[in-house]
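Input record (one chain):
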Amino acid sequence: MQASKISQFPSVTIGVINYNGSKYLEKTLAAIFKIDYPDYDVMLIDNASTDESVEYVRKHFKDVSVHEMADNRGPNIARNFALKNAENRYLLLLDNDAIVTKECLSNLIGVLTESPDAATCSPLIVDSENEQKVQYGVTHIHFVGAALIENLNGSGSTTDERVSVATTINGTALLVDRDRANKVGLFDEQMFFGWTDGDYSFRLTGAGYKCLVDKKSKVLHPASVRSKKVVLHQVKNRWVFILKNYSWKTIILSFPALVFYEIAFFPFVIIKGNLKEYFMAITTMIRELPKTFEKRKEFFERKKLPDKRLLRSGNFTNSQSIITNKYLKVGTVLVNRILDKYWNLIKRFI
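The corresponding structure, as predicted from the sequence alone:
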């Protein structure tokens, strides 16, 4: 798929999602006001920051409209505020530490407006210290509930195609066609952090819309280290994602593999010292099952594509990038092979 030139420039709202981002906002907002796009407005949605973020923006970036949330219940609350209240059809959601390049928005708009069956378009998210290192790009979902990121830590291009269709895309920088996406639903506010963007874009894909990645567009983003709290949300939301979005047939057929995956990677939980967070996550997930099943019903009323087209098997790219022990690396390769064989066995029935 190739992008063509823009015949006209539609108005775009840029929504910056912020929580205690005072150390990032100067660079983030300055970069926004240097882009080559001719028609846009900027809003900052603040999740009850306790630093001087809001005061700083109001003083130094008077063209930015500031909207303050009453409390911090995660980025999805702020994203949904932007999706519901942006002035324009097209909305670029941007994390407070994401630096847009000059031509990024023009490129993304060119791709999205020329794609009548697409609801979102994302740039490559690259390391701000090394632009050749991809953090997020074309992403698909492993059937056991894991992200498969093409060419992670590489250049981001495994094919000659400029634009690729992904099953899910990252929310660090995400251009949304609100007229299409809002028909499917908003971000899941039950998810505080982790799997938030994957769940959102997976539901768009499942409803028949394309989620695109433009490899010509780049956004710079600093590398980060996961805290124990983030691990808790990741574990819980992975199960919420599976139980909400997979068909019951897929869950039943995948169940042996899901159990195998939990057992195989449980040593990582212990090695990282996250045992307490793991069990807290499972407990919270079980407690929230009624909400999860209610949202499952809502999604399946709009779901058009079967799981066979939404899920796949493959190498756990995230795992490979953080494993240093050679024995654990070998174990991960073995797990990948076993799951590949199992997927090939069951996918014809899904």
